[in-house]
Specification:
Layout: H1 5-14, E1 24-27, H2 32-41, H3 46-52, H4 61-67, E2 70-73
Antiparallel strand pairs: 1-2
Helix pairs in contact: 2-4
Length: 81
């Protein structure tokens, strides 16, 4: 993610070295067509999306998301802060 000015600035502001490590993974195969529809809906963000999900626009959702079949998240407990 080098060269992304906003990302680099955010790391400085928040005093971190990068994104937090995920602690949850979700199988997204049942939602493949919905995820692809959402990804293609953001026409102004296609260049950014292609950096994180390469070639997703070339393959049908059923094929692409059987290969890249999980999304990863970090759960943050706001009540304990």
């Amino acid at each position: 993610m080098g060269g992304l000015e906003v990302y680099q600035r955010a790391k400085e502001v928040y005093g971190c070295t990068g994104m937090p490590a995920p602690d949850v993974q979700v199988n997204i195969v049942p939602f493949a067509s919905r995820k692809k529809a959402a990804m293609t809906a953001y026409t102004t963000e296609q260049n950014s999306l292609r950096k994180f999900w390469p070639y997703y626009h070339w393959y049908p959702a059923a094929i692409y998301f059987r290969i890249f079949d999980r999304d990863f998240f970090r759960v943050i407990d706001l009540e304990s802060r």
